[in-house]
Amino acid sequence: MKRTTTEIPNYGNWVNIKFIYIPGLIGLTFLILAFFVPILAILAGLFLLLAAYFAYARHLFAPQGKNVQGKIWAKLLDHLDWDGNGKILDIGCGSAALAIALAKKYPQASVTGIDDWGKGWEYSHSICERNARIEGVEPQVTFQKASASRIPFPDDSFDLVVSNLVFHEVAGTIDKRELLREALRVVKKGGTFTFQDLFLIEPMFGKMDALLEVVRSWGISRVEFIETRNEPFIPTALKLPFMAGTIGILVGVK
Fold first, then answer.
1. Are 143 and 96 a contacting pair, CB within 8 Å?
2. 51 and 23 Cβ atoms separated by less than 8 Å
3. For the residues of the chain, what is the DSSP string, one character each?
4. CA angle 190, 196, 202 (to 5 degrees)
5. C-alpha separations of 225 from 78, 200, 213, 222, 242 in Å
6. C-alpha Rg value of the chain to the nearest Å
7. What does the pLDDT read at residue 63?
8. Structural contact between residues 160 and 193, judged by C-beta atoms closer than 8 angstroms
9. What would the pLDDT profile of 144-169 be if each residue is shown by its tens digit?
């Protein structure tokens, strides 16, 4: 589908602008105070360096920069093996970039995006609807407020369930494997799932071999892990554990 307007969609940036402004302001404050207490110049330098790093990371993720954000979305889409007929759920849809890409890729499918759109993000329900309208897929997609920890749909509701870099952000659930289980609950038997997240952070998800065994124990017929972190489009500066250095994809069939 083609865009129906000359407006430009706003898909935001995974590096919130506050991660630049807050350390930047703190660094400048310490820099001023360093005129009276020189030792504070060290703290000023550290905070300003942190602000500079996040500014650079934001540039790398942005479409106007290296578009790493878009390439990570595309990586998830590349590993979809689905016929395109049925219902799709995007868990933690954010700005609806992935939901809209799915609607374009599978024009016969209906797409539902859920998110809690917390205050820590630059996204909202209205931004999702605006982006869908601009991209010409508004009749095909719907959005509603909901948490990944309690998905408001019955078991076996969707033919395809996807999620991109969401589970590690759900603060209310300590054992992130429970979020996977909840996501898989709403996949139809024989349906497809593709989840991309910081799966290589062991305190969150455990060791990968053990995680795959746990997922299979839930009655999942096929699941495999694909690393994203070593893709050539991810710059060295983004390969820190809390950025893109632990990203991978769980893909399979229920």
1. yes
2. yes
3. ---SSS-------SS-THHHHHHHHHHHHHHHHTTTSTTHHHHHHHHHHHHHHHHHHHHHHSTTTT-HHHHHHHHHHHT----S-SEEEEET-TTSHHHHHHHHH-TTSEEEEEE---TTSS--HHHHHHHHHHTT-GGGEEEEE-BTTB-SS-TT-EEEEEEES-GGG-TT-SSTHHHHHHHHHTEEEEEEEEEEE-TT-HHHH--HHHHHHHHHHTT-SEEEEEE-TT-TTS-GGG-STTTTTT-EEEEEE-
4. 110
5. 14, 10, 12, 11, 19
6. 20
7. 87
8. yes
9. 999 999 999 999 999 999 999 999 98
Q: Taking Cα atoms as reference points, which of 139, 70, 146, 140 lies closest to residue 105?
A: 140
Sign of CA dihedral 166, 170, 176, 179: negative
> How far is CA 63 from its chain centroid?
16
- The predicted structure's pLDDT at residue 1: 53
pLDDT digits (tens, 9 = 90+) for 164-215: 999 998 888 889 999 999 999 999 999 999 999 999 999 999 999 999 999 9
Q: Report yes or no: 159 and 188 within 8 Å, Cβ to Cβ.
A: yes
CB burial class (10 A; 0-12, 13-18, 19+) of residue 36?
A: exposed
Query: Which amino acid belongs to residue 168?
Result: H
Residue 101: closest CA among 15, 197, 194, 169:
194
Beta-carbon contacts of 133 under 8 Å, excluding residues fewer than 6 positions away, are 4, 5
- Residue 188 φ then ψ, to 5°: -65, 150
